[in-house]
Automatic annotation (TrEMBL):
<protein>
    <submittedName>
        <fullName>PMF1 factor</fullName>
    </submittedName>
</protein>
<keyword id="KW-0158">Chromosome</keyword>
<keyword id="KW-0498">Mitosis</keyword>
<dbReference type="InterPro" id="IPR007128">
    <property type="entry name" value="PMF1/Nnf1"/>
</dbReference>
<dbReference type="GO" id="GO:0000444">
    <property type="term" value="C:MIS12/MIND type complex"/>
</dbReference>
<keyword id="KW-0132">Cell division</keyword>
<keyword id="KW-0131">Cell cycle</keyword>
<keyword id="KW-0137">Centromere</keyword>
<keyword id="KW-0539">Nucleus</keyword>
<dbReference type="GO" id="GO:0005634">
    <property type="term" value="C:nucleus"/>
</dbReference>
<dbReference type="GO" id="GO:0007059">
    <property type="term" value="P:chromosome segregation"/>
</dbReference>
<dbReference type="GO" id="GO:0051301">
    <property type="term" value="P:cell division"/>
</dbReference>
<dbReference type="Pfam" id="PF03980">
    <property type="entry name" value="Nnf1"/>
</dbReference>
<keyword id="KW-0995">Kinetochore</keyword>
């Protein structure tokens, strides 16, 4: 890949362009100009290869590329297509967040129903306790009156 890139770079920055830039020098010594061009291109290629290798080493790109290859291999058997960004951030966020938020909402609704049921039972218990207290107060008053 790097070599192909460098070949295209050399073809794009052809010798003729180099000659056009250094026309006066080329007129005086064409062979030396060609030699300088060749040396410049070889040093440029070496420098680019070195930079690419440095980036690969610093960023642990070899490991990342191998893990990416693994993911691609695992995904070959899947029938559904992998998620791809649409380029519209709002849509991308919506497509990933809406299912999560809907699931969270249903969970919260279930919790609210459970709490409402629990509160209803507690309210019934409180009312039963109040009724029992009223009954006991009436019983106490009746016994008090009977005792007097």
């Amino acid at each position: 890949v790097v070599d192909t890139f460098l070949e295209k770079l050399v073809a794009a920055g052809s010798y003729q362009r180099f000659v056009n830039c250094y026309r006066c020098f080329y007129k005086l010594q064409p062979q030396l100009t060609k030699s300088i061009y060749d040396q410049f291109i070889s040093q440029l290629q070496a420098s680019i290869k070195e930079e690419i290798q440095e980036v690969k080493n610093e960023g642990n790109l070899e490991g990342l590329f191998s893990s990416l290859d693994k993911i691609v291999e695992e995904a070959k058997d899947r029938e559904e297509p992998a998620w791809r960004p649409s380029g519209i951030p709002e849509d991308d966020v919506r497509s990933s967040m809406v299912p999560y938020l809907l699931k969270h909402r249903s969970h919260l609704r279930r919790v609210v129903r459970e709490k409402e049921e629990e509160n209803r039972k507690v309210a019934e218990s409180v009312l039963m306790g109040r009724d029992r207290i009223a009954e006991l107060q009436q019983l106490i008053q009746a016994r008090q009156q009977a005792w007097q």
